[in-house]
Amino acid sequence: MLGSGPSIHLLRVFGIRIGASPSWFFVLFIFIYLGADYFREVLDGSVTQAYVVAVAGVFLFFVSLVLHELGHALVARREGIPITGIDLWFFGGVAKMGRDSQSPGEEFRVAAAGPLVTLLILAGCLGLLALLQEGAALEAARLAPDDQISPTIALLVFLVMINGALLLFNLVPAFPLDGGRIARSIVWKVTANRNTATRVSGRIGEGFAYILIGIGIFLAARGDVFNGIWLAVVGWFIAQSARGAVASTAFTERLDGITVADIMDAQPVSMPVGTPLTQAQDEYFLRYRWDWFPVVDEQGRFLGVVREPRVDQEIAAGRPALAVGELVERGDAEDWRVPSDSPLESLLGDEQLRSRGALMAVDADGVLRGVVTIDQVRRALTAALPQRLA
């Protein structure tokens, strides 16, 4: 949910970078401190025991949080959305996607994946509680102190409570929460208009945010300063994000009707797959002074790119007659592609365009129809927006 800034690399899972912003470590220690108070009351044991269980509980909760975001990320990757990583930060986690959803179904599947993972974690914890308590899972989840409760039961109860709260909060139909994105997908499906759907879910998000801020101010005025400030700050961030989403719809509507095909270079320089390396070097790299070129097959379908250092390396190794098709970087070819009929606004937040500087515009059959660069996008915005605002 929401967003984050620069982060510290922690690990990789399924090839996805997991990072944490400095604010996350602050929250980590706050959670451990508050968790220790809870476990000291519930377990009625030593301070050391309470802190040990609190550390374990907070660690498992953040594992749950990472799994929640991995649910979003893996489904998004399956839908063809590039994932640049997952960041933990002050208010939870965020899966950083290379582009926005392109259909209501895609939006729904990606948004629902995280809550589904959290629901499975919640069900697993309740199942373990029922097993350990001989079926009395709900009785074990009481918040009152119990001298007979074990650290394991207390830990499971803690995970049930915190994951349950996470699930309920995320399912609120307020953008940018998961529930808001699910609501956006439904409105998008009904109206066939993503901008309308974003405005509806964004307005709900703003209303929910103001309710949170009001509750926070009320709690702070009643003496519960910590929880009051926390809710008010969370509400403020949600309001900012929701308001930004609503404002962006006005911007994208001004670009309505402009597609990749309208701004791309419709006569891209590409190499046939059978081009010998010496010809590639002489007629392409030395002539145009570009670092890479797209390679196409006999039907004009985009296969990937070939880079000058690799060509030079093979020529120096005594293989000048080798065809460029042998050196094509096919592994990330999909990340280079963009449908030529995609709307211009879909490129505005495209991580692949930003990192590569250009994308290959292809038709439904994968035939290369043009090349769109980040400079072309900027020029198109400069040229189009004043006309549409006039």
Strand content: 5-15%
Name the assembly state. Answer: single chain
Biggest sheet overview: 4 strands, mixed
Task: Give the number of helices.
Answer: 14
Radius of gyration: 26 Å
Q: How helix-rich are the residues, as a percent range?
A: 55-70%
| Integer average pLDDT | 85
Give the CA-CA distance, first to last residue.
36 Å
**Overall tally of domains:** 3
How many individual β-strands? 10
Structural class: alpha/beta
| Sequence stretches where pLDDT stays below 50 over 5 or more residues | 143-147, 386-390
* Helix-strand pattern: EEHHEEHHHHHHHEHEEHHEHEEH
| Backbone shape | elongated
Instruction: Provide the spatial order of strands within the biggest beta sheet.
Output: 1-2-3-4
Could you write a compact summary of the structure shown?
The chain is α/β, with parallel strands linked by helices.
Spell out the key features of this protein.
390 residues; alpha/beta; CBS-domain; 3 domains; four-stranded mixed β-sheet; three-stranded mixed β-sheet
Explain this structure.
- With 390 residues, the chain is of the alpha/beta class.
- It folds into three domains: 8-171, no CATH class; 192-250; 260-389, CBS-domain (Roll), CATH 3.10.580.10.
- 59% of the residues lie in helices and 13% in strands.
- It has helices spanning 22-43, 47-78, 104-132, 137-140, 151-170, 178-191, 194-221, 225-254, 260-263, 277-288, 308-316, 333-336, 351-356, 374-389, and strands spanning 8-13, 16-20, 83-89, 92-97, 271-272, 292-296, 302-307, 337-339, 358-362, 368-373.
- A four-stranded mixed β-sheet has the order 1-2-3-4. It has a three-stranded mixed β-sheet with strand order 5-6-7.
- Helix 13 (351-356) links the parallel strand 8 and strand 9.
- Helix 1 packs across helix 2, helix 3 packs antiparallel against helix 5 (151-170) and helix 3 packs antiparallel against helix 6 (178-191).
- The radius of gyration is 26 Å and the shape is elongated.
- The two termini are 36 Å apart.
- Residues 143-147 and 386-390 have low confidence and may be disordered.
